[in-house]
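In the design runs reported in the main text, the only information available to the sequence generator was the tokenized backbone. The following block is the verbatim input for one such run; it is reproduced so that readers can re-run the procedure and compare outputs position by position.
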């Protein structure tokens, strides 16, 4: 998506060797109109797949996932990172290593929000090593629902999570693919 590549170049900040900060429109401040355009683009790529639920993980994926859900006219479920007292009973769960927090995080979804008859589209803001996405795929598998694929805003291809998951047969659509960020220079694929 050309507009996204332009926004990354204009507003993105490379931290160290492998972190991209896009706080001005995605990860701290949100540009709602732009998020809606990205949501429509992801929804369009999965039109005709019979998606009944969008699934993401809190927190930064929620805005884009909501825009995708709005465009497809389906509910959006977000996996919770900390079990709240309101979450009781059996839960679908997975352990993921958080790239930005550098720690293991337990994510959960209540079975009533993911049914075996659902067709699920996973949405997230970034794809790096694929930890978050694999955790969400595990949760979809536990539920018995069908996985339509994953829609990602920014994929950092050099961290190779996408490669491993595509090799498992998962369809992944990324709106911007970054090949490298050497010396702070962003190169798109
Ligand atoms: P992965 O699990 O694929 O290694 O990393 C994906 C998750 O880590 C995303 O949910 C995202 O929140 C976070 N993440 C990974 N790389 C970046 C990055 O370069 N910038 C930001 N802001 N978040 C990232």
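Verbatim output:
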């Amino acid at each position: 998506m050309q507009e996204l590549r332009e926004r990354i170049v204009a507003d993105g900040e490379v931290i160290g060797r492998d972190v991209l900060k896009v706080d001005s429109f995605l990860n701290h401040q949100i540009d709602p109109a732009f998020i809606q355009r990205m949501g429509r683009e992801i929804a369009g790529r999965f039109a005709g797949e019979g998606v009944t639920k969008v699934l993401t993980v809190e927190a930064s994926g929620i805005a884009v996932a909501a825009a995708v859900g709005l465009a497809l006219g389906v509910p959006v479920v977000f996996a919770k990172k900390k079990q709240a007292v309101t979450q009781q009973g059996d839960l679908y769960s997975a352990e993921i290593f958080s790239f930005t927090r550098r720690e293991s995080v337990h994510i959960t979804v209540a079975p009533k929000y993911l049914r075996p008859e659902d067709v699920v589209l996973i949405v997230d803001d970034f794809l790096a090593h694929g930890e978050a996405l694999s955790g969400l795929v595990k949760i979809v598998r536990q539920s018995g629902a069908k996985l339509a694929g994953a829609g990602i805003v920014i994929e950092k291809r050099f961290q190779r999570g996408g490669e491993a998951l595509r090799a498992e047969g998962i369809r992944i659509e990324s709106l911007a693919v970054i090949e490298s960020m050497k010396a702070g220079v962003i190169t798109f694929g």
